[in-house]
Amino acid sequence: MSVKFVRGLAEYNRKEKCRTAVTIGTFDGIHRGHQEILKALRTVSEKSDLAPVLVTFNPHPRVVVSPESIPLLLTSMEEKEKFIPHFFDGTVLVLEFNDELMNMSADEFVRKVVVETLTAQKVIVGYDHAFGKNRSGTIAELSDLGKKYGFTTQVVGPVMHAGKPVSSSRIRSAMRDDDFSGALEMLGHHYAISGTVERGIGLGRRIGYPTANVRYGPRKLLPRDGVYSCYVSAAGECKSGMMFIGKNHFNPQDRISVEANIFDFDRDIYDEEILVFPTQYVRGNRKFESTDKLVEQLAIDKNDVLRILEKESKNAEKQGAKSTNCI
């Protein structure tokens, strides 16, 4: 089975109407808690011979519900499309979250989406799931609606980290608090920053450290400013490298840059999509008095990054882990 993305109820393929096992959520981050839900969905689907369906939303519901407090995203929709196939096989139904969907009652949402469209026999949700207008639908109500419409509900408990449940909001807080390693532990996979490669000021190439400048989304949550070890998925290859996040003090444009110096890579990838995966924080951003001083520091950074990446590789080998550097 492979993953099929379907956008909107109208496009959902019902030519061969089948019984399904369904999970529903925003799934921002596809973190360890989400992964447990997807494992449960796979188990239920296989045991009950049901087609697995993941229902998610675009944009993030809070864009519509509370536009004054929109969260920055751990995973954009494009990044979800890259990550989800590593944890899920089946159909992903992407619903546009708009005023109509926002104002659906819990009963109406279940009836129209879960029952009439997806013909669900099983619904698997996380312990803190809420749905319907104003998130008024509780798990108890979902269970009652299941009895009304003919499906059963399974609730997946929390995945704990440092004594507290893993959640998207907690991962955002960890990143804001400069705890990038803690955020990665809760995610259970590398953090991705995706975007199109755009032209910069060309300084990196002139000083021997060419960088791919990533045009990331305006609502993407970035780790704190500084230099990181990283992996880069570009032009069908997975490469190691070092990356920079922050204001480039040699660039007159006052904006936060995401730049990756890709090791052993010399291809023209302007206007192509790439994914950058920062793995470990190396040092903070600082202003250099000259490009010569910057070059000196970059040489030190590269040696540090190479040591970090070598250590990561050895640890992965010891644990018998398969390479998950890029997706």
CATH level 3 topology of the largest domain: Rossmann fold
Total individual domains? 2
CATH class of the largest domain: Alpha Beta
The SS-based structural class is alpha/beta
Helical content stands at: 25-40%
Q: What profile does the largest beta sheet have?
A: 6 strands, parallel
- List how many beta strands DSSP finds: 14
What is the CA-based Rg, rounded? 22 Å
Broad shape: elongated
Report on this structure.
The strands form three sheets. Strands 1-4-3-2-5-6 form a six-stranded parallel sheet, sandwiched between helices. A six-stranded antiparallel barrel has the order 9-10-13-12-11-14. The protein folds into two domains: 4-164, Rossmann fold; 190-318, Elongation Factor Tu (Ef-tu), domain 3 (Beta Barrel). Strand 11 and strand 12 (237-246) form a beta hairpin. Helix content is 32%, strand content 26%. Helix 5 packs across helix 6 and helix 7 runs antiparallel to helix 8. With 327 residues, it is of the alpha/beta class. The radius of gyration is 22 Å and the shape is elongated. The chain has helices at 32-48, 61-65, 77-83, 99-102, 106-117, 139-149, 168-176, 180-187, 203-206, 291-318; strands at residues 4-7, 20-24, 51-58, 91-96, 120-126, 152-156, 160-161, 164-165, 193-198, 212-215, 226-234, 237-246, 257-262, 273-283.
